[in-house]
From TrEMBL:
Sequence ranges assigned to domain Glycosyl hydrolase family in this UniProt record: 268-767
Residue span, Glycosyl hydrolase family 92 N-terminal domain: 35-262
Domain of life per record: Bacteria
Cofactor(s) named in the record: Ca(2+)
Coiled-coil intervals: none
Protein name stated in the entry: GH92 family glycosyl hydrolase
EC numbers for this chain: 3.2.1.-
GO BP terms, alphabetized: carbohydrate metabolic process; glycoprotein catabolic process
Stored Pfam families: Glyco_hydro_92, Glyco_hydro_92N
Keywords: Calcium, Glycosidase, Hydrolase
Length: 788
């Protein structure tokens, strides 16, 4: 009996071993795209946050909308289980072309609230490039996919002669209303039209989106409505508060629809549709989208770590390539709205007449020097180059390098000129296929009165003064209580950001052979010192008369404290990424500075290092917002790298580790910025100065994975790949015990971009206790011996 029992147990152990073996094999074979989960933190979306049926930077971002109004808590919300429409544009201050399939008596003219349908997550699938959901009210299976500029729909209706698809072109959607819209029937299988999106506080000029919709079969009826009243079937639809519909007889076969969009013309919308999607093979579109995403995500391959860690890693990487949008057509045309009238422009073409890059639009670069700038320049340099070209185009069009364009408009979102760090990083990493001198000209203009720095957030006045540049040039700091329009008129934050941006401009000036500018902007980069108060021990805002503001406290209540943009002194005091040795000296040296920063982490740990959006003044550390994104890495610069290893891992785990619909990004992912930060933390790499200096440093912390391969783009970098390996990696073993770089002992907590660009291997040994001797050596003496 005992022998039989041992045999049975042995068989069970063998079966368990086989299961584990095949599970391990399946995990190793799983493609990066298969780890992406669009539902992560989707309970509290912004309009542009949730994406499913979208390509990288797609003009079309097709997905269900459970709430259709507002910039915040809109679009797809996980716990809102009624779909009001499927819309094609989820972008920074842009929306458009909502459609809704229904059955039964037509009621679309009564509005989306009347025709909304319950759905269940149990029958729902969302993946990169594909979304499936069942509309329970109508028994319709809806499937969505897309190319870059064309949305493709496959609707499986029940058998009926009253299957409708409504186009709510005149409805409020996302950020605002619609000034007017029009739809007309082109043939028995095609309609075309437009919607003129009302201007917003941020995007002040109304903006057209044009569309052409074709169907894989003739429709039986075309009609429309205005002001909730159905119109005669023969009339084109034009005006306000309107929309259109088509009706089908349906049986076993689904109805397929393709919707091409454009911001320039109906003609270009049709060209986009015909050029990108000439066929009706829905599954092919899904597979091609999945393949495109997998190709982009496979530029970083990871092994080891847990399943949730891999899921979050590739979802982070996916998001870094998702939120910012292409706005140019397949032929390279785009709409310039910087002047009094819209003008159609075109990007540069190659010798064959093909666009060299797309024109992009995006939310602010504010904070991107610690996120997207670093990641894109490492892994997606061609993307960074496209954005540089887009900004130079906008300078040529409207006279300013932008910090957040939308619909061809300048939005003047946030503060300063964060584009300068973007360009400095690109240039110093060899990303230079744009008008470099023209870019420098625009960035230099922004650094003086009359440039974009002179506009605080959303200041659209004719003569801006709200950015305080005159005071900055004359006094060396921006005082509080500035006059002028706009918001975010926060002098201390402006001073600190301008100083860093001056330093970035100095780096560009030096590289371009402009010694006078280099000296000027290097000197200005020290302006942060004018706000250091040795008595309070913090960056301390000043009044116009030069006195310190009274009732100062490092943290406060609400959105921000006086002087600090969406933040406080406890966080912004550390915003000196270009001169941390100088800041640390002001703070009393390494030991005191380490105590200061670690105290902030200890106070914030119970709050998971975040605070609610809108309460940024209340936290000592706030990884929910951009000004705090570097704080765990500060210890590397104060001779305590083991503490950066500790706190980066902690923040990655508790702040950005969640893979449920209720966490992971803390409600404000900002078009890939927090996704990019999550990727960098998982890689164990960071750049304090944003990569903006010549041969900039990559700070080293402990990665999450056993092996990481970063594929280097052959048109920009000499090497094939940069590999990071770890031994003894686990949740507990987070401290670096020793390292080798290209086979040589490495005792510095950083390496240079030149080393990265040539390719190589960084091998780390991890342990449960900090090795306080590792990482404290300068790399300069070792660097010559480790080149491959």
């Amino acid at each position: 009996m005992m022998r039989a029992l041992r045999w049975i147990l042995g068989r069970q152990e063998l079966l368990l071993f086989v299961c584990i073996f095949f599970l391990s094999c399946s995990q190793q074979q799983k493609q990066p795209v298969a780890f992406v989960d669009p539902f992560i933190d989707s309970h509290k979306s912004r309009w542009f946050y949730f994406n499913s049926a979208s390509r990288p930077f797609g003009m079309v971002n097709l997905s269900p909308d459970t709430r259709t109004e507002g910039s915040w808590n809109s679009g797809y919300l996980y716990d809102s289980l009624q779909i009001r429409c499927f819309s094609h544009i989820h972008a920074w201050q842009m929306s458009g072309i909502p459609v809704m399939p229904t059955t039964g008596p037509f009621e679309g003219h009564l509005g989306m609230e009347h025709t909304k349908s319950q759905f269940s997550h149990e029958s729902e699938i969302a993946q990169p490039g594909y979304h499936k959901v069942v509309l329970d009210k109508y028994g319709i299976k809806a499937e969505l996919s897309s190319t870059t500029r064309v949305g493709m729909h496959r609707y499986t209706f029940p058998a009926t002669d009253s299957a409708y698809i409504a186009f709510h072109t005149g409805a409020m959607l996302g950020h605002g209303g619609v000034d007017s819209s029009g739809v007309r029937k082109v043939s028995e299988q095609e309609i075309e039209g437009f919607a003129l999106m009302t201007g917003t506080f941020r995007r002040p000029k109304s903006t057209y989106v044009y569309f052409v919709a074709t169907f894989d079969r003739p429709f039986q009826e075309f009609g429309g409505w205005q002001d909730s009243t159905l119109l005669p079937h023969t009339e084109p639809i034009s005006g306000k508060n309107n929309g259109a519909y088509v009706r089908f007889h349906t049986g076993q076969e689904p109805v397929q629809m393709k919707v091409g969009i454009s911001y320039t013309s109906i003609e270009n919308a049709r060209k986009n549709l015909e050029g990108e999607l000439p066929h009706w093979d829905f599954d092919r579109v899904v597979n091609e989208s999945r393949k495109e995403w997998n190709t982009m995500l496979s530029r970083i391959r990871v092994e080891g770590g847990s399943e949730p860690q891999r899921t979050k890693f590739y979802t982070d990487l996916w998001r870094s390539l998702l939120g910012r949008r292409i706005v140019s057509d397949l032929n390279g045309e785009y709409c310039d709205m910087t002047g009094p009238q819209p003008l159609i422009k075109r990007v540069r073409l190659d010798d064959n007449g093909k666009p060299l890059y797309p024109q992009y639009q995006f939310d602010a670069w504010w904070g991107s020097h610690w996120t997207l700038n670093v990641l894109w320049s490492m892994v997606y340099p061609e993307v960074m180059e496209g954005f540089c070209n887009s900004m130079v185009n906008m300078y040529n069009d409207g006279g300013l390098i932008p910090r957040g364009p939308s619909g061809g408009n300048y939005t003047y979102v946030m503060i300063g000129d964060p584009a300068v760090s973007f360009f400095a990083t690109a240039y110093h990493k060899g990303i230079r296929n744009y008008e470099v001198e023209k870019a420098y000209e625009g960035l230099r203009k922004n650094a003086f009165p009359g440039g974009i720095r002179d506009r605080a957030g959303y200041d659209h006045s004719e003569i801006p003064i709200s950015g305080g540049m005159r005071e900055y040039v004359e006094r060396g700091y921006v005082p509080e209580r500035l006059e002028g329009e706009g918001i975010h008129k926060d002098g201390a934050s402006m001073t600190l950001e301008y100083a860093y941006q001056d330093w970035c401009l100095a780096q560009l000036a030096k590289a371009l052979g402009k010694p006078e500018d280099y000296a000027l902007f290097t000197k200005r980069s020290q302006n942060y010192r004018h706000l250091w108060n040795p008595e309070s021990g913090f960056i301390h805002p000043r009044e116009k008369d030069g006195t310190w503001i009274v009732d100062f406290a490092p943290i406060g209540k609400g959105f921000n404290t006086l002087g600090f943009c969406e933040s406080n002194a406890a966080i912004y005091t550390h915003f000196v990424p270009h001169d941390l040795p100088g800041l640390i000296a002001l703070a009393g040296g390494n030991e005191k500075y380490v105590q200061m920063v670690e105290s902030s982490f200890l106070k914030s740990e119970k709050h998971k290092f975040v605070t609610d959006h809108g309460k940024h003044a209340e936290s000592w550390i706030d990884y929910e917002n951009q000004p705090s994104c570097h704080m765990a890495h500060l210890f590397n610069y104060a001779d305590a790298p083991w503490l950066s290893q500790k706190w980066v891992r902690k923040v990655k785990e508790v702040t950005f580790g969640d893979t449920s619909p209720y966490g992971g990004y803390n409600g404000d992912e900002d078009q890939g910025q927090m996704g990019a930060l999550g990727v960098l933390m998982a890689l164990g790499l960071f750049q304090m100065d944003g990569g903006a200096s010549a041969n900039s440093k990559y700070d080293i912390t402990s990665p999450l994975f056993d092996r990481i391969e970063i594929i280097l783009h052959p048109e920009y970098y000499e090497g094939e790949k940069f590999i990071i390996t770890t031994q003894n990696n686990s949740k507990e073993n987070l401290y670096i015990q020793s390292a080798q770089l290209n086979g040589k002992v490495w005792n510095a907590c950083y390496f240079t971009h030149d080393t990265f660009a040539k390719g190589g291997t960084l091998a780390l040994v991890l342990g449960a206790q900090p090795n306080k001797n590792w990482g404290r050596q300068e790399a300069s003496d070792q660097q010559k011996t480790v080149s491959k």
